[in-house]
Design goal:
heterotrimer, A mainly alpha, B alpha/beta, C mainly alpha, A: mainly alpha, MetI-like fold, C: mainly alpha, 14 helices, flat
């Protein structure tokens, strides 16, 4: 009994090793499965090519070939890594083949739409919190609209604005704005209403005007909610910008890369663009997180 | 160890428990010796952090000791838990919100595999014993705090363990409800003759309910004194205004003071 | 007092509308419109007086409803009206102010149940009405913004086409993908709970995976599964898997320490604890994921269709008709998708209410 008790009372194995090991293990497993799947999915094409060339083949040649095809059904991880490396680091940034250039195009639309959407969302939220009419009439529609597939109207917005003469950055920014003002509105409404009723009563005892209450109490109380919504909004804004590049066959941007890759069967290009899109998404959300931490420090929340 | 009243229910020798925390090891319990006999009502009292809840949890095999020996009904705490030897009542009702009152009381009975008809009759019996007959179909959130705690006690009694471990069960309730429940608990104990280990930090509660009061010191948790309580059996709430009651309470307070419980 | 001022302004604008004679419409329509306008003015004037609140509200309501008929009647004739009928627009502006007054009155109705639906319903109907009047009145090109009546017409006449599209996208791709994705996410979460090593590895990776925009994996899956609905269902599976996984894992950890200690004190097995405590406690989180997934699934299926589809499907219909600039058809499809999405969400919300009636969020 005592030995068991001592074992149980031993310090638990926490720390970095404990947390990284499983992630690494699963990643390794994923990569292994990926290579195997690449062989499985690319084999038919490889066999066809060998036979049409009249060459004989063995298992080793088969595997090697399926991992180095030009237009594989499933590219091997090293192929994707190589393409990614080439288009990001070895191509000059202003070259149309540079993935960084395309990412930049998409990110500019994302950020513009994000800024517009945030401003719109905040204004709507302030209106809803201060006007019972907007609160009871408009808010239910805003909530209900989250169940509507907003991305579906992206093509329409692009084409309609295009027929009015707006091309390029603006329609994509409009789609992004439309997508991201919803989470900001909902989050800010919650945040502006989050102060404790006791604190609101205190303000009333000071005879504070509504603007003062907004500035001194509601707005600071809403920062948590604001940043949570901003993270969702910027990710959604990125998706909106990418989708906005699809309808008119845009020439630049990550969505355009995805589309052209899909038209011309350049699967490796699709995967590279996909990975770049994820990295961009993670970086953007992380930037919002950094901003959040700066604001929190300024507000005395953390050391 | 027989089943006769007076036989030893819980035997604790040299029990120590040290928690490894991020800053420094915390000695929660330091060399505890305690013997509890069948049918006794023992209170553990002391200031916050004196280890009384930890001691209760060790008996319940919810914590493992660093050193020492615990025997419940003659077997290890682990075996006693696997034999379902005790019912535990927490500080909060810990009822399942998605189950009705009746199904909450039937929860342990389901786990031990009792047939459905017997489960229902047991649940009905213990609910009426705590005065909640007729509330079977209600849900926990529809009841007051005191009523929820009573359901929790009925649940602990339902599978008829010999031992009842209660961790400040009435701490979250207002004084009037608390008095009422103290009275009910005492009557229940007199009726069923179970062994009860009761953690509290209310002196009057400890003196009212128990026949032995174990006073513990603040960290590290040690037993300062074990005070026998000779108040008459069958006592009711008005015994709290008698001089005998006040004498015992005074002794408890002295013990606490000697253990520096009142120091800043 | 502000309400009174609003009312006066409304009256003023509407009277000014009389000064400039409206153009267009047959003489009968004009006569009827004039009559209605008078009734409106009467109602609005009566509404100014501060007697019984209910009578005040009633007369204002009549004014609003009758007043709404006026522009509709006058807009029947050949247009364009635009700046040529300032009287009409002044009247309409006044009407809008009356409407606002109506809405603020309805907004003060006690909430809960049917009462809460009146204001948003009125707002929605008014929005549709204004859309119709403004689009017809200003002769907005159909390519830019079609009138609701046109969209309704398209919905009615091309119903059979839309039904097939709906079946392809929603009934096949969305429902199949949703069911598979949610079940898979749930099962993997339960397994990851049993094998904590797996959970610690999967959680950070799923965070990364959910950063991948769904629009990106669509072309890849179309390449693997072909053009038909199977590839769209596959996209839906991928999209719904991660929110369900993350939410279920969070939910399984939600049972609090006291309740778990209780199970421990009963010497309950892992399976008993899972079924009797942790799964019911996880249900609110599971339903949260199911609601999120219901909207994600529809979006995913529609967007996936932008990347390649047989000549069927809501997404396909949108991209095809957008290319032909049949914007009214596009709006009709969007209306269908919106309805489908809202009803899907609503059904899940109802099931959630039945299954998690005990959760504190229902006890406002």
């Amino acid at each position: 009994m005592t030995t068991e008790a001592l074992l149980l009372a031993a310090p638990p194995i926490t720390g970095i090793g404990h947390r990284i090991a499983p992630v690494v293990a699963i990643l390794a497993l994923l990569v292994a499965v990926w290579y195997a799947a690449a062989v499985w999915l690319n084999t038919p094409q490889v066999v066809d090519r060998f036979e049409s060339d009249g060459k004989s083949w063995n298992a080793r040649q088969l595997i090697e070939a399926s991992w180095s095809m030009e237009r594989p059904v499933l590219p091997a991880p090293h192929q994707i890594a190589r393409n990614f490396f080439e288009t990001v680091f070895e191509t000059p940034v202003d070259n149309k083949r540079s993935l960084v250039y395309h990412a930049g195009v998409t990110v500019s639309a994302t950020l513009l739409g994000f800024v517009f959407g945030t401003v719109l969302g905040v204004l709507l939220a302030v209106g809803i919190v201060h006007s019972p009419v907007l609160d009871r009439s408009l808010l239910p529609w805003i909530i209900a609209s989250q169940t509507v597939p907003i991305l579906a109207i992206a093509p329409m917005v692009v084409v309609v604005l295009g027929s009015l003469g707006f091309v390029g950055l603006f329609p994509k920014a409009v789609i992004s704005m439309y997508l991201c003002f919803f989470p900001v509105t909902i989050g800010m409404v919650k945040g502006l209403r989050s102060p404790d009723p006791l604190q609101l009563d205190l303000m009333r005892s000071y005879s504070a005007s509504r603007a003062q209450v907004l500035h001194k109490l509601r707005w600071p109380a809403a920062t948590d909610f604001l940043f949570a919504s901003l993270k969702v909004a910027i990710a959604t804004s990125l998706v909106g910008a990418i989708v906005g590049e699809l309808p008119t066959g845009a020439q630049a941007g990550l969505g355009a890369r995805l589309l052209s890759g899909s038209y011309y069967g350049q699967t490796i290009q699709i995967w590279s663009a996909l990975i770049m899109a994820s990295i961009v998404g993670v970086v953007l959300v992380a930037l919002v997180g950094v901003a959040e931490r700066l604001v929190a420090r300024h507000m005395g929340r953390s050391a | 160890m027989g089943n006769a009243p007076g036989a030893v229910a819980i035997e604790i020798r040299g029990l120590s428990l040290t928690f490894d925390t991020a800053d420094a090891p915390v000695v929660a319990l330091d060399d505890i010796d305690l013997t509890i006999r069948r049918g006794e009502f023992v209170s553990l009292i002391g200031p916050s952090g004196c280890g009384k809840t930890t001691l209760l949890r060790v008996i319940a095999d919810l914590e493992a000791p660093s050193a020492g020996h615990v025997a419940v009904n003659g077997v290890s705490a682990l075996t006693a838990r696997l034999n379902r030897a005790y019912g535990y009542v927490f500080q909060a009702p810990a009822l399942y919100a998605w189950r009705s009152v009746q199904r909450n009381v039937m929860l342990p009975l389901e786990i031990i595999g009792m047939p459905a008809s017997e489960r229902k009759s047991r649940a009905a019996r213990y609910l009426s014993m705590v005065g909640l007959a007729g509330f079977e179909r209600k849900f926990p959130w529809q009841l007051s705090g005191g009523m929820q705690q009573r359901v929790s006690i009925a649940r602990a009694l339902a599978f008829e363990p010999e031992l009842l471990l209660m961790d400040e069960p009435f701490g979250a309730l207002d004084e009037i409800t608390r008095d009422h429940l103290n009275d009910q608990l005492l009557r229940l104990w007199e009726q069923t003759g179970k062994t009860v280990v009761f953690v509290t930090h209310s002196i009057s509660e400890a003196v009212f309910l128990s026949n032995r009061i174990v006073v513990m010191s603040p960290r590290p948790g040690r037993i300062l004194e074990i005070i026998g309580n000779d108040l008459p059996a069958g006592r009711r709430l008005d015994v709290r205004e008698t001089t005998r009651f006040l004498d015992v309470a005074h002794r408890v307070r002295q013990a606490l003071r000697s253990g520096h419980s009142y120091d800043d | 007092m502000r309400q009174g001022g609003l009312q006066l302004l409304a009256l003023g604008l509407m009277t000014a509308g009389f000064v400039v004679p409206p153009m267009g419409g047959s003489w009968l329509a004009r006569l009827l419109a004039l009559l209605c306008a008078f009734v409106t003015l009467l109602g609005a004037t009566l509404g100014l007086r501060r007697w019984d609140a209910r009578a005040e509200g009633a007369s204002d309501l009549i004014a609003v409803l009758v007043g709404a008929a006026v522009p509709l009647m006058l807009l029947e004739g050949p247009g364009p009206f635009g700046g040529a009928a300032p009287g009409l627009w002044l009247f309409l502006a006044g009407w809008v102010l009356l409407l606002w007054r109506m809405l603020s009155m309805f907004s003060r109705l006690p909430g809960g149940g049917a009462g809460a639906l009146v204001a948003p319903a009125l707002f929605g109907v008014a929005l549709l009405y204004l859309w119709q009047v403004l689009v017809v009145g200003f002769a907005v090109p159909q390519v830019l913004l079609p009138a609701p009546s046109q969209v309704g017409h398209v919905l009615a006449t091309q119903f059979d086409v839309f039904w097939l599209d709906f079946r392809q996208t929603f009934l096949k791709a969305v429902l199949a993908g949703y069911a598979i994705g949610c079940c898979a996410g749930f099962l993997v979460a339960v397994i990851a709970d049993r094998v904590p090593f797996l959970g610690r590895g999967l959680l950070p990776l799923s965070g990364l995976a959910s950063a991948v925009p769904i629009v990106g994996i669509a072309p890849i899956l179309v390449m693997w599964f072909g053009f038909d609905w199977h590839s769209k269902a596959a996209v839906v599976v991928v999209v719904t898997f991660f929110p369900m996984l993350v939410n279920t894992l969070t939910g399984l950890a939600a049972a609090d320490a006291m309740q778990r200690d209780l199970m421990h004190s009963y010497a309950a097995s892992y399976a008993q604890t899972l079924v009797k405590l942790r799964l019911p406690a996880a249900l609110p989180f599971v339903f949260n994921a199911m609601k999120i997934n219901s909207t994600l699934a529809l979006i995913a299926a529609i967007v996936a269709e932008f990347f390649g589809s047989p000549i069927l499907g809501l997404g396909f219909r949108i991209s095809a008709e957008v290319a032909r600039l049949n914007v009214d058809v596009v709006w009709a499809v969007i209306a269908i998708a919106a309805l489908a999405g809202s009803m899907f969400y609503g059904v899940i919300a109802l099931v959630e209410r039945a299954a998690t009636f005990w959760h504190p969020s229902y006890r406002a």
